[in-house]
Design goal:
6 helices; transmembrane helix
Amino acid sequence: MWNAYSASYIKNNKTGNRFIMVISFLAAMMLSLVSGLFYNLWIDQVNQTIAESGTSEVAFTPVVIAYIVVFTIASLALVMMIHHAFAATMTNRIHQLGILQSIGATPRQIKSTLVNEVVVLSLPAIIVGSIIGIGLCWAVMSIIIGSTANLRDYTLTFTYHPIVFIG
């Protein structure tokens, strides 16, 4: 019954669903882009330290601290963007959820239904957004690497660690 309810809601509420999917896509793409850029800039910092001093110990320089602060702020902003998109669509459904509760749906069943809807709507958008974000990161890093090649004594390549993707 709950799967049929969710499927019916997803099928009949295209505007709200598109809104959730677009927000999830944009947030995942931007988060993937920002995290990839900061990871590559951090790798560049490590390579630069190795080239200058011969050691791979990277201290928390102001640049590294700035990377961490900006990345944290960007991550929180994008997560809040997704949260508010879901909150906006749930606010429109309060009447409908109240009816479900009045006919015997438990809070656990309602929460399970909403979580399933969120996963169905946002997971594909998040995956596609992350992949496109990685592609954009590669393009930006290629431009940076190409334009700064004569300023470096070391080779810089694009890297994207799987932990960055999972994060």
